[in-house]
Write the structure tokens for this entry.
Amino acid sequence: MLEVVRTGIEGFDEAFGGFCRGQIIMVLGNAGSGKTTFCAKFLYEGARKFGEPGVFINTIEGKKEFYRYMKGLGMDFEPLEREGLFRYVEMLTPTSKDALMNLSRELTKHALECNAKRIVIDSITPIFMLGPSIEARAILHNAMKNLVRELGAVLLITGEMPMGEERIGHGVEEFVVDGIIKLKLEVPEAGAPRRIMEVLKLRGRPLSRAFYDFEIGPPLGLRVYLSGVLEELESSIDIEDKVPSGVEGVDDLLGGGLIRNTATIVMGPPGSGKTLLLLTLAAENTLRGEKVVYITFEEPRQQVHATLRFLRYDAEELEKRGLRILSVNPRAITMRSFYDIIQGFSKLTESKGSLLIVDGINSLRREFGIDFHRAIRDLVLQAKKAGVTTILSILKEREAVSEEAVTHLSTLADNIVELRINDEGQRIKREILVLKARMSQASNMIHELELVDGRLRVR
Amino acid sequence: MEGEGVLEELVKELEERGFIVTRRGFIEGVSGVKHYFDFIVEDPRSGRKLAFSVTDRIRHEHVLSVLAMRIDTEIPHIVVANEVDPSVQDLLRKCNVFTVSFNKPKFSMLSSLPSKDLKQFTKTVASEILKFLSAIRSAEA
């Protein structure tokens, strides 16, 4: 029975259990795909959580840069090095025919000296580029496998894939190694970058699913999302922690308010009260001390101030208290600048317990076309990652947004609130209905939403 | 004494003990690559072969290539060297690569071995081979 070696990488062990002692795992990917960080995390957690000494042989990057970059990601290797649990070996850009002998020396010497149980060679590509034949490489892999087995270690070797190249194509490595993990950084022309981990082979471990999202960043360095990013983020939601709407009666309809760190869509025709509801939410939560960013694609800033005054709020005072109002002309916004705004707000609302309110998100549909849904998905995703509660308003009008489009968006939202207008001849009656409220006991009744003395309330 | 003379002494000793010795022979590995050795020693009774190399020193930098040859040829390997790093010796032993070393400063080169030490040297190597082949025989029995 092979001894299982847990990687210590959050998400990876839950999915695969880890590696097995004596295995060689190849980590492949284009430049910038996260290979070095994945391997570093394997050694870091091995030393920290399991007390297993590790050796990192780097043929690309110097020690100083490595330590600095990894520290920025939350992995400080210096204390581990002092404790004898980590060794960093620079074997920069091997160019001579002695490269294999150098590799043998560094690998064997350091592994034996510190009794390494985890070893990384990052990257093997410069050594292989020196021209050993496929046969020689196969023999070398077998030799390394023998060595690793005798050491009782696990060896991770990284391999470069040329930019834009999808196939592995190393020739022999994929057959002789015990596992192949392919890392990918997808940078769409429009959209947020996405990191994907593809496990193509892992001897002795179950492979129930091949693709996983993963993320690189502090404080964990690297984590793998088990059930897709959105679902995983939702697992940390506290359903008792709710954000009040500030509108009398609306919280009762929602089962006590909006659950923090969820996404809500407010939809309705023009004049149904979407902007009034959103601005009330923004103002009341600012007064409660929340950090609120209000982005509108519908109205100029002065109009927002006027509406706040109509709702009997002091706009200047709210801004002093931290309310950020951004008025963006949808025709002037490019996909790139939209993503800059998304990135920007996560900095604006760095502390947990913040609200992002976007009025008139449908205006982007005309500009973004088929990328609209992805842009909204990324917006919701970024907000959830930053621990931000999101409220988006969308115009529901046959010519503006089709039923299909609303259906697509509704899958991204945890809550959907519909506002309606009921023309009763003598007067126009506004109505409110909660169509969806995940994790809450929401009302399924239609209620009147009235405006009394400049304030909204549910009747 | 010349290095060539040392090898000849070894061959003689092994042949006297009943082995078939092929000088500077090669074994084609599983990969198809030909691996050259100073001697290939064959036990005529079992048909078992041993690869035999003479080198100056075995250190960390040699581990991968020695292991590579051993694994590809699928036969045990005996390496005689003036100097063998002790940690490497243990590691290689576990992988069926046997090293015979003379870790004494005065034996800096095989070619300079004095004649009285040569006798001891050849006996040690031959015993190592015999020990190994006996182990295989008992395992097969």
In short: The CA atoms of residues 35 and 364 of chain A lie 36 Å apart. Residues 134-151 of chain A form the longest helix (18 residues). Chain A has 17 helices and 22 strands. Residues 242-458 of chain A form a domain with the Rossmann fold fold (CATH 3.40.50.300).
